[in-house]
Amino acid sequence: MHSYLQTLEDSDSSKRQAAPEIIWKLGSEILFYHPKSNVETFNTFADQMKNIGVLNYLKISLQHALYLIHHGMLEDASRNLSQAETWRYGEKSSSQEILINLVQAYKGLLEYYSWSKKKMELSQLDKDDYAYSTEAQNIFSHSWKTSVNFSALIKTPGVWDPFVKSYVEMLEFYGDQDGARKVLTNYAYDEKFPSNPNAHIYLYSFLKRAKAPRAELLSVLKILYQIVPSHKLMLEFHVLLRKSEKEEHQKLGLEVLFGLLDFAGCRKNVTAWKYLANYLRQILVKNHLGWVQEEWKTRKSWWPTFHFSYFWAKSDWKEDRDLAYEKAFVAGMLLGKGCRYFRYILKQDHQDQRKKIKRMKKSVKKYSIVKPAV
Amino acid sequence: MDFPSCLRPSLFMTGPLGVSDVPDLSFMCSWRDALTLPESPPQNCKNAVPHLAKALLWEPAMPGPLPLLPPCLDPWDPGVTAQDLLFRGGFHYRRQPQVMLDVTEQLSRFLWDHGDIAFAPLGKMMLENFRLEGGRNRSKKMTVVSAKRLLQDLGGHQPWGCPWAYLSHRLRRFSIVGGPVLGKSVSHLLGGLLHEELATRWEQLLLDEAFTGGALAWIPGRTLQVGQLVYPAGGTLDRLRFQEVSLTSGSDPQVLGDPGCIHLQGPVRQVVTSTVQGETLLAVRSDYHCAVWKMGKRRRPAPLQVLRVEKGATGISLSPHLPGELALCSRSGAVCLWNPQDGLQQVYKDTETLVFRDPSPWRWADFTTHPRVLTVGDRTGVKMIDAQGPPGCGLLLFRAGAEASCQKGERVLLTQYLGPSSPESLPPTLHLICTQFSLYVVDERLPLVPMLKWNHDLPSPALLARLLPPASPGAPHPLFLGGLGGQVQLLHITGKEASAPQLAGPPQSLPSPADSLSAFPLLEPKSQKQLQERLEAPTIGLASAFLPCASTPAVWLFQLSAAGDIFYQHLTLQAASSLHQDSGPPSDSRPDCHAPRATVPPVDQRPIPSWTARATACCSRWLEALLQVPPASPVWAAPTFSHRRLLGRLEPRELEEKVPQVLREAMAGGRLLQQRDLGLLPQAELPPAPEPGLQDELSERLEEAWEGRASAWWRKQQGMASEPGKQAKRPKRRTQLSSTFSSLTSCLDLPNTSSLPPSLERTPSEARVQPPVTPYSQESAQQLWVQGVHSERQQTLRDYMAELPLPKGTPTPGHVPMSPSRASRTQATPSRLPTPGSQPHRKRPRMGF
């Protein structure tokens, strides 16, 4: 491209159409990052660019509004979005419709923002106050508009976390539990949507707030476990499973812990190690050696170097003694007392931990899945 | 691990690349990702993000990278360039110029240069039909022809389809009868092979995937300041070097001692290092071999294992979790986990690509946060494979399609696990995926939906990427993205546990080695070109070292070029305050910059870095060493054997001896060399006098019209005007397939001399080769040119023509051979003689297109 402005009048239609987008992209990036640019300059630029080539109007309006939000000018942004919302060009194409939905959703988000601000103010007001009723009325009038704004977009496949979150919050506030549940279930289970962990997390926390039965919670978490076995909710999942009476659930509880600790990012999670140490003991006491062996079979080849190497024993002991203790216990259980990690921690013989270590030594001797050669 | 509690809105569409009618939400600006809606009402700190972002700027200390080591002593040749392969002429009328491989020219060049390969078998086959030795005694056999005669006739033949080439009856007969046989069998086979070769060469030129991942690595040493650079050196990149480098903030890196060297048996394509549990490993990929070393105490590498990859290895990566574990992929589509202790374990094998069919056999494998899950990538997508799971299952992590709103033709060039970086700044689940247009950051917990997409717009394929630890805890990670052409971009990626990864701060473009040209002293054109070629050599490795302990965080970026040179640049993090205040006029305010500065607000008021005296001195030293390097010897030189020994002396040519002598005289006297000095001015040959001008035409027409013969005049005029047009088109119709035979036959359909030689109108570059002469001496100038420049080629041709057969039943030639100097005089006579069986030469084989 020799000259940006020249390209706007290029005789090649495809070039001519692509040009405004490029100019917009470059211009907006520069204006966003330049230390000396200001909102007025950006506004002028955006307003001019909107009207070059009709196809870009919605996109640029949307980004313009985002820019304004970024600079805290929420009212201007809202005005901008309202303008874009009513804009039509030619026959309404599907791509145009999605963009309009998106514009509406962002507008809804802004309304949600002012709504939640009002809600905050309301909570600070005295209920008998004169202002209370007018404020309350205000809030109600908001809700109706916003729900319209959101509902169209969240039916389109995509990731709509902020919209769904605020929509559900508003629905819950007005007591529409079924509506909220429907929205969340649809967001989590619709096959056309990407497998977004957040959808399941939102659903789980909603159910938890609604005090749903444990079975329901478990089924949500089970799906989350399949998608993200490394999520921190897995610890909650484990606790729920441990409490369950079904044997199958208890077995799953062990699997979840092992699964969580497979991930490099969870290597230093003390809680998980603590849970595993306790649960291993509990299970082995109950004589479910088979469960442990089943889990251990696939990990035997790499867990020792991954978790229980000499290097980790040293660094864990240096960084976090609790962690080192829990890990040493698990290592002893799984690898026998000859394991280097276990031996290293044992050797440290620290004053505070002496009692603990003694106990650990005893249970390892008793329950370890590796029987010492006779 | 925490998952970002609120992801950025994005559309999710499935389908093939860039065909669905959905709005492309990735059109959005890079800063869209930095936007967060104020979540809970009192939000005072929402403006903190952009301010932080704007403050992020890594300032290069010099306007360009500087050479770190003296140039490698092996000469370097840039090899085949695009200009060598592309069709040079014609097609100007197209609106959008299309890339076309010039197979015809390549073929004819091949026939010229490698005639031994092209014609030797045929020559051997037809040896009995030629008489190489011997004088006048006529053979009784009609099938035996004297090669001497044929060669004499060929003496004046001009290659490249010259219309004025002289053709004897003997040659004509020979080429007509022999043409179909010779043309077809040789050029069909050769053309096919050559076309195939050209296509692969061209693909290699477009994307040289061999160096994906980069062949330069930085191994941090015992102290932060000292480290080792590991890189291949030598002209063939087969020597693995270990060079200790010491870094101190504020000065140039110091090279410590001589490099250690390991001589390998193949070119090094990729060098990877990783330190796991205190153990540093080094893996190297060559074309058909992979090897692992362990860096022992005192930083000495100890070899662990070498592996032979039958089909060719395309990628190697070291596990960030388990010491000594590697992922390896080969052209056959297999991906293996490799552990020097336990050996190989095949994890995945598929000869087909993941998403849609793509011919490229390139595969890539890397690790994920789960030590037993690998990513497997090809040009169409990236999949996560569980090494312990049943074969064939897995989850697509990235698909070159509508999910990531890819463009049409977008292909994966590089995938990289961003590694278990410090958890407070980036989650350990991120993968970087580069295509030729964009960069994607994908979280393995949310497959198919990129967390971040950014248009990098690098002009060359982005095959190198390096992520650095943050400058300070919690700060964004600098990410270097390098193209094969030397361009490097610097991005800042941030994504605390609970928020999605995003770009922080403006993306920066860093200078490439080619930008350093100004630091070198000006040279004479030839050396300047050599230097420029050297600086513009493709970048095949990228490494960065980080010095966090310095007062201002500093980064060294090392670039390895295909010529074996290492360039470095030093970047320092600009303090936030210095960006916002004016730091005064630039230190080297050039006079031409003043005018625009006064009126237009400057885009950037930071001082432009300029070359220091030390930098230029370093460059001059390097250049001196470079100029000592002998130039690369040409890949191939035309054979210079003589046929004289075989055939006895041909008559010496008067012209050949006379021309240089006259030229020398003219030069000594400072005169212009003119046609008449050579005594060759062909009187009968004068080109037609200039057409009568417009005015004459007008008056002539008026005269005719006055006498009432206007229409007759007009018809005459039209006839005249259309004739030259037709003639001018004829040479264009001729292909450039100037294989020796077709150019022989092609001379037949040239009726007269008024058309220009195609060599003049074909390309400007070819026309430039000719000496600037007056139009009168065009023909002889061309003769000179042909005889001078291409005498070697002519000789080759003569040699091979000597072995061509004369078919049975050809009447014995009674034609008097003409000397080449007289050829130009006789060529005006039309050579379109009625010949029986003159059809075959019409079917000239056209190769390629």
TrEMBL record, chain B:
Instruction: List, as start-end ranges, the regions of compositional bias called Basic residues.
Output: 840-849
Segments forming domain TAF1C C-terminal: 771-849
Domain named TAF1C helical bundle: which ranges?
A: 529-744
Q: Which GO terms describe its cellular component?
A: fibrillar center; nucleoplasm; RNA polymerase transcription factor SL1 complex
Where does the record place the region Disordered?
578-608, 715-772, 803-849
Show the GO MF annotations: RNA polymerase I core promoter sequence-specific DNA binding; RNA polymerase I general transcription initiation factor activity
Q: Which InterPro entries match?
A: TAF1C, TAF1C_beta-prop, TAF1C_C, TAF1C_HB, WD40/YVTN_repeat-like_dom_sf, WD40_repeat_dom_sf
Q: Where is the composition biased (Low complexity)?
A: 736-748
Q: Which Gene3D superfamilies match?
A: YVTN repeat-like/Quinoprotein amine dehydrogenase
One family from Pfam that matches here is: TAF1C_beta-prop
| Polar residues composition bias: residue spans | 821-838
Per the database record, which ranges form the TAF1C beta-propeller domain? 283-419
Cross-referenced PANTHER family:
TATA BOX-BINDING PROTEIN ASSOCIATED FACTOR RNA POLYMERASE I SUBUNIT C, TATA BOX-BINDING PROTEIN-ASSOCIATED FACTOR RNA POLYMERASE I SUBUNIT C
Protein name, per record:
TATA-box binding protein associated factor, RNA polymerase I subunit C
Source organism = Chinchilla lanigera (Long-tailed chinchilla)
